[in-house]
Design a protein that fits this description.
Elements lengths: L16 H20 L6 H14 L1 H8 L2 H11 L4 E2 H18 L6 H21 L2 E2 L7
Parallel strand pairs: 1-2
Length: 140
């Protein structure tokens, strides 16, 4: 795999490139929080950060893609490889736990129903829309 051209892409006006880089760092920060906090996704923020960096300065995109865990997640997403089955289980479990723990804090029944529907939509998206990557068995 060759490194991307370090020159910024021409589709981003020069005055907006620093804003794209700033957005990339903000999204990277949210991604790090997602790795640390249960129920808060991390991968989506890293994918968005890579997209922002690609518009602002491809050197930062290359830096993000070179990170050990994060880079593989973003590259797999871009390649359409999907999520490992274990990651899908973890994501769906985190959604269910987050909805269950936050539900009593919502005082209105309509809000509770809406919150459960949001959680179900997230689980449905993960299970039905994101491809499941089948990793080879360990030792193979």
């Amino acid at each position: 795999m060759t490194a991307p051209d370090p020159a910024p892409r021409p589709d981003a006006p020069p005055r907006r490139r620093p804003l794209w880089v700033a957005a990339g760092f903000l999204l990277t920060g949210l991604g790090v929080l997602g790795l640390l906090l249960p129920g808060f996704p991390g991968t989506v923020w890293f994918v968005l950060a890579a997209a922002a960096f690609s518009r602002g300065d491809p050197r930062w995109e290359a830096w993000l893609l070179s990170r050990p865990v994060v880079g593989a997640l973003v590259r797999d997403y871009r390649a359409g490889l999907g999520m490992p089955l274990r990651a899908k289980w973890i994501a769906c479990t985190c959604i269910a736990v987050a909805v269950a723990f936050s539900l009593p804090r919502i005082p209105v029944l309509l809000g509770q129903v809406a919150w459960v529907l949001v959680g179900l939509a997230g689980v449905a998206y993960i299970t039905m829309k994101i491809p499941t990557r089948r990793d080879p068995p360990r030792g193979a």
